[in-house]
Amino acid sequence: xxxxxxxxxxxxxxxxxxxxxxxxxxxxxxxxxxxxxxxxxxxxxxxxxxxxxxxxxxxxxxxxxxxxxxxxxxxxxxxxxxxxxxxxxxxxxxxxxxxxxxxxxxxxxxxxxxxxxxxxxxxxxxxxxxxxxxxxxxxxxxxxxxxxxxxxxxxxxxxxxxxxxxxxxxxxxxxxxxxxxxxxxxxxxxxxxxxxxxxxxxxxxxxxxxxxxxxxxxxxxxxxxxxxxxxxxxxxxxxxxxxxxxxxxxxxxxxxxxxxxxxxxxxxxxxxxxxxxxxxxxxxxxxxxxxxxxxxxxxxxxxxxxxxxxxxxxxxxxxxxxxxxxxxxxxxxxxxxxxxxxxxxxxxxxxxxxxxxxxxxxxxxxxxxxxxxxxxxxxxxxxxxxxxxxxxxxxxxxxxxxxxxxxxxxxxxxxxxxxxxxxxxxxxxxxxxxxxxxxxxxxxxxxxxxxxxxxxxxxxxxxxxxxxxxxxxxxxxxxxxxxxxxxxxxxxxxxxxxxxxxxxxxxxxxxxxxxxxxxxxxxxxxxxxxxxxxxxxxxxxxxxxxxxxxxxxxxxxxxxxxxxxxxxxxxxxxxxxxxxxxxxxxxxxxxxxxxxxxxxxxxxxxxxxxxxxxxxxxxxxxxxxxxxxxxxxxxxxxxxxxxxxxxxxxxxxxxxxxxxxxxxxxxxxxxxxxxxxxxxxxxxxxxxxxxxxxxxxxxxxxxxxxxxxxxxxxxxxxxxxxxxxxxxxxxxxxxxxxxxxxxxxxxxxxxxxxxxxxxxxxxxxxxxxxxxxxxxxxxxxxxxxxxxxxxxxxxxxxxxxxxxxxxxxxxxxxxxxxxxxxxxxxxxxxxxxxxxxxxxxxxxxxxxxxxxxxxxxxxxxxxxxxxxxxxxxxxxxxxxxxxxxxxxxxxxxxxxxxxxxxxxxxxxxxxxxxxxxxxxxxxxxxxxxxxxxxxxxxxxxxxxxxxxxxxxxxxxxxxxxxxxxxxxxxxxxxxxxxxxxxxxxxxxxxxxxxxxxxxxxxxxxxxxxxxxxxxxxxxxxxxxxxxxxxxxxxxxxxxxxxxxxxxxxxxxxxxxxxxxxxxxxxxxxxxxxxxxxxxxxxxxxxxxxxxxxxxxxxxxxxxxxxxxxxxxxxxxxxxxxxxxxxxxxxxxxxxxxxxxxxxxxxxxxxxxxxxxxxxxxxxxxxxxxxxxxxxxxxxxxxxxxxxxxxxxxxxxxxxxxxxxxxxxxxxxxxxxxxxxxxxxxxxxxxxxxxxxxxxxxxxxxxxxxxxxxxxxxxxxxxxxxxxxxxxxxxxxxxxxxxxxxxxxxxxxxxxxxxxxxxxxxxxxxxxxxxxxxxxxxxxxxxxxxxxxxxxxxxxxxxxxxxxxxxxxxxxxxxxxxxxxxxxxxxxxxxxxxxxxxxxxxxxxxxxxxxxxxxxxxxxxxxxxxxxxxxxxxxxxxxxxxxxxxxxxxxxxxxxxxxxxxxxxxxxxxxxxxxxxxxxxxxxxxxxxxxxxxxxxxxxxxxxxxxxxxxxxxxxxxxxxxxxxxxxxxxxxxxxxxxxxxxxxxxxx
Length: 1532
Description:
By secondary structure, the chain is of the alpha/beta class. 63% of the residues lie in helices and 9% in strands.
């Protein structure tokens, strides 16, 4: 066929191997070289020969290097390089290789073999055709021969890889495959063009398509490079070396930083196997939390005297991080300077295609387009990356500052904020402020981008463009107003979320008490109400966001309508070039106009958060000058070491007094701010205090409940507000709090408390604190891990561990707050003798105590009443003086009378004191107060950990999770509706552009009114669809979020107690806080957006490729590359997101722990060590965040470059393909769509990746939605009668209890029968099972065997609430909830004020409550901090009084009160509960002496059960205990 008669360009149709002479232009020669069949084959043959040469030379080199040498010196060198010991080969042989690896290698081998085989078959066929044929066929034979040989060689190389288990294909093989794929695409492109013109080369052109399909796997392997072999063996030594040599952000080259290549090793590692925390390198030294915090603190503003700093957090952040902020701004400007290159070229491309032009001009335009878009990609991703990095540094600084502040907060300030809210400052507010630093640039970049776009458009369309300004102004005003309203809703939403978190924190902290009292529903309803209110504000906020979205999406459409309408009216001639240049610009404005309101919303949210952080960081701190501290050096024995002179001290008692529902917000906020910031509400507690303690003295502080004993210790530590007077302390202080504070860690870590291990001293401390036997009983001794807040220890064990911690620190002054309350008599005596009078001899000790027995043996006694020191002196002096002290001693003596009588009786009846003989064996087991000693809770096998590692899913977020989220609210109907609306909306959006193309194509006469009428109709329809679609997505999202919260919360509420014992509250709180917020706010928005984005991407690709359809051949491999990059990124990013969640929780856990133990930490001066630990935990979390974000930019950078390549190929084909191939009317539309393709693809893929990462929140929340539940709360078939139990008879038959499956039995077959109305005292050593018995009766632990029958009903057949609500209990630790006196005594609100006052009067608390101005509404702070422990115990007693249960349990009920109050409580219980069955666990022998019978437990068995006097008459365990108690003061 002749070239002249063909519709194709001559270089596409000719099969000649040399160009015809007339054609001398360079573009023509280039087109002939790359697009003519014969030169194409010659080039491919050259590639084959190059590969063969490379393969041959490398094979020879390898052969020579392997040949053994004979020379001895060479031989020596060869062996010298070998390792002395063979590497262990177990790693490779033991682990099976992953099957996917072998499959990859097999596929590469198969593809290469197929290429060689097909080439050989075609070569044979060509040779048969060769006789008498043209040069063309001869050339084809030569090409096929070269190709067959090259692919046979490639097959050989691949086969050799398996033997050596090579992990990556060699470079020369990958380049060969890449070249082969590129030529296959060129061959197919030419073949497609010839087919379209009806002039195909047969059989070559059909075979070209088959060849392309065969080349795709090889193209994939050339890009990935991995053989899939050796991955399983990639452990061991070589990996360590690789890790050491790996490039990180801190060590990367400029090129690596520019292309994000430095994160390649981590992504490769993540693609091979699930990442572990140690795989992730640390952040650069300059980005660590230490440096960020140091910078922040050094720039904290110092206000002028008498004034307070205005916006200190913002000021400090700007001063600290302005250089990086400026650098990000420069990158933003660089991005702006190149972003409009593409749209400016649309008009020129349309002109070129319509009217033709020089090829060089066309190539020049394509080159400008390629370089411009590539520069835009580079600038935009570095702008994003640097912005995020700055945000990360700010977050680190704020987290550290919030933590540091928590160590310095005054007691009142800490109470005012509350632990839950302070956790939110860390989790939420710091995050909001960190995120906004990046958004801030949008506020000035967006107006600038719009101004530049309008200026450029002005050159195309003239003054008509100015009407777009009107549309922009309307959009901006609407969005600004909506955001102003939205800010108020956000503020309310955050406030309600804080309240909900505070309530959940309280619920988790006191779950044991709540379950014992059957109050779950009441607390649950309170939290559900708060959640409803929170969701109400969130919904309002989300609807405003919807309105914003609609206004913004319709902005570009409205601009187009206005501008084109004005053009038509003013007679400006519209053609495709102008129209699509304008739409390309409007499309570009889409981004800035969307990010602008998002930026405003982020800025408004951050403003709220900054206000909250300002208020917190400016709040009152402890004043170090309150106490004058002097070093202990050179102070001799007998010199003054603690002195308080004329001291008047107050507590700051402010707290949030019910926030109301906030009708008039502004005033509310102001008053609250004023309240929390600078106005402590002082309540004077100690008056006229004068104390002098000399070195080496043991001083006891005694007094009635609420007399100010603990406050006296607080004023010496500097924890109180000093109104007047002076305090002087010489030397280091140690503090043992009344309520034990234990850290989550091993027992040894708790005792060492950061000090080095000195074995001798450590052993001595363990001995003197009576911990030896406890540790022997524990399977792992002092390596046993203590659960959160010491849940797996008894009260006595906790108390002795914190005493051991104090003793081990070897301080000068010891402040001990009632350390004997939780231990039994014998242990108490031992501790007094061995520890206070032994190990601590010579140290100064101030001991608050209710134990009168020890007072003979102290150097000085301080007697307190109503916050004043009434008396002080030695025991005998005070006794003679009478008054308060004499009353305390008298109360104690009367309680001892019974004991003494029984001892006398015993002495007269037994000449041989048998009970005393048994004491040594008893002492060997005298460990301390008994409770639930949990040993080795792990089921699979013994382990010292009680807190299990957090469960972390790995691998892909399963489709089950997506399905669960998408179908939770409306089933598949919801999904279907979302998809349908998204498709129809996308169709309407494209319809408007097709209408523009059709009308401006020039092929039909232009009708202005028809043109604008149809365009406006389509636009309106599109906007209405958008409104429906957005509302649908929001409603669906909010309903789904609420369902998830409800399921999780109900599941947690119904979980058994063992779940709370082994799960740190931080783990539950992070799900209820950040994970729930993700589901509430982010997922509701992202799911719909992801669907829309993917539909947009596919429609954009279709539109871009429809003009020059051969570009599809280039697009397909590039899309495959896109998918490959996405999957590779996702594998890494998913694990990094999970690791981020797992490393975030310890930051919160450690913080919650610190808030609870702040007083202890400060007293021991351990603030630095705790702060450093916090910094380490923050750095660990930052590592994951930083590399996750870098991986995101790594992906984006590559995807956008691929999009740029697709656009450039399409543009090149537009100018190079013959005119019958090109749909000229669509050129403008195609380019205008194509320009947004690269950012669209990146946006769609990154949104879908973010969605997948955020779906982890659904996965985590769902984990806690399916917890095993305890027994039913109510069982309809087994409802007890309303007044059950009527008698209170209790029959326990062969009761066996264990805490978890596969753990030892705690109760080993208890048989007890108790008659109604009996008073039973339960005694026994630590671990004997006393508290377990009570837990079994309340079914906090279900029995393994046996029955418990009360009034004829087996209690295991009842609902838990029916059972627990009928019992009264005064638990060991008196628990009060934040609220008022009324809400604490009667949480359910079923009693009248009169009944409550009566109960308070009978508990001797009426006078205290009457003295408060608010009476029954007097505030109770978080944990009842503003009431003494004794008062809390009495309040708990008054709860039981109101309940009037037939069966009452008392678990160490009087442990924290003095003998006088103890006697009062005993008297009250005798009078008030005379007809009730009372089961009382006690360590004070007098409290069980007036019981009807005493139950003695030992090692989970009943040893004795009889009347106390009868037990004393004969040799018995109980008799021995009485003996110990009675003789302990004389023994000391």
